[in-house]
Amino acid sequence: MNIIKYSILAFLIFPLYADVDYNSEIQPIFDNSCITCHINGGAYFGGLDLSSYSEVVEGGTSGNTIVPFDSENSLLWQHVNSSYMPPYGSGNSPLTTNQINLIAEWIDEGALLESNEIEGRWVPGGFGNTMYEFVDGLRYTYYCNDYNNVCDSTYWNSLDTSNAIPNPNPYTIDGNTISINLFYGTIATYTIDFRCDGQVVDFYYDEDDDWEGLHSSMFRESFDYINSECNICSIYNEEYCSWLPGCQWDYDLDVCFENSDECSVTTEDILGPYYFEGAPFRNIIAHEDEPGERLIISGKVKQNDCENSISGSLIEIWQANEEGCYGIVEDCDTGNPENDYFNLRGKFFSDVNGDYTFESILPGYYGSRPRHIHIKITTPDEEVLVSQLYFENDPYCENDPWCQDANGRIILLEENEFVLYGDIDLIMNSLEDGIMLGDLNFDNLSNILDVVSLVGIVIDGFTLNDFQVYSGDLNNDSNLNVLDIVQLVNIILN
Length: 494
Description:
By secondary structure, this protein is of the alpha+beta class. Helix content is 19%, strand content 22%.
């Protein structure tokens, strides 16, 4: 650990530059393949948290996770290079040779945060329809073509510099001062300060200006600044506070604060090592004779305004049995009376009103973890939420870092003479309505083309994707057959 800290101190004293950019090249590897387990302080796995640069360089409890300039003696590289991580059965694919080599290159360059912190794509606070990209001394400006909504990362990622407005602004950096040529003899100069592991950059008026204080802030294009723990709101004055989603100005105290009453999307949680694809379509995931208290959970899948619903969202559920044992990957001594390979696993859709219901049993305690149900939601527009649902007054929640961060995901259970039941709405970071029944080609129409698609599916016995199962199952019997074809024809004719 001291090796890392002394090296970081050296980085502050000597201006070092590297070719590998941590935020755009290394962190995405960890996000896609590692942080389902290595998150929240690494409570599960050796104290190693790979969710941010500061956590990575802090390392774990097993030794020198990263030795700057020496990848071969860094445990991180040793484990990924030996295919020890990510482990088999974790649901994550092994890293590619290029990814492993890139991690080694990053470490051998000194494990720096960034080669040039300002390079990359940034969204200014309060302007969801604008994005800036700093590349090789030029600042490109993009505008979103949807002025009613905040453009998401999928849209921005589809753009390149050819889509930017003409004549990018040249910029230079000297220490922590940036000068941007706005043309016509205007040079804007600011002092810049990076926060939140380089995910946020604040621009302050230059000391020679008539103005003083904060000019503006920008957030890396993929950074969730609303739900971050970086205390985003507190640095803003009244004008910028009103522009920033999730922030509100207190006129009595003259401070900007996080608005806790703001509609909030359902937060993420770790995928865990026991997710498997291929579970059958069903919303009763516990067989009739499965040991345990019967449990029914229901609610709505909603858009990020917490009002409008999303139809046709694919919901996947998996959980431990009454004894805390996960099927498929563990030999369970109890449960699974039907010898079902996908016991206590299933998938289903939210209906035309966004409603969903599933029936199971109350999961047992898995190790020291509180009772929980894993959930993965994929909207028809392929926005994905991976999370876990917990239960109120669970004594194990107090010491569980994931449950402690589960605001909005803790269910109050009630009981009648038959079952336990609870309600919870699941809020996606999405503005889509979903898909129509009968719209198998997803063009927002039901017509003869959809009949042709459905006939082909029924005859050939396969679908292009899960969402065609939803749109084609018009009589809601979980099967695509001639009855659905007849009903679709009737809908079109009427």
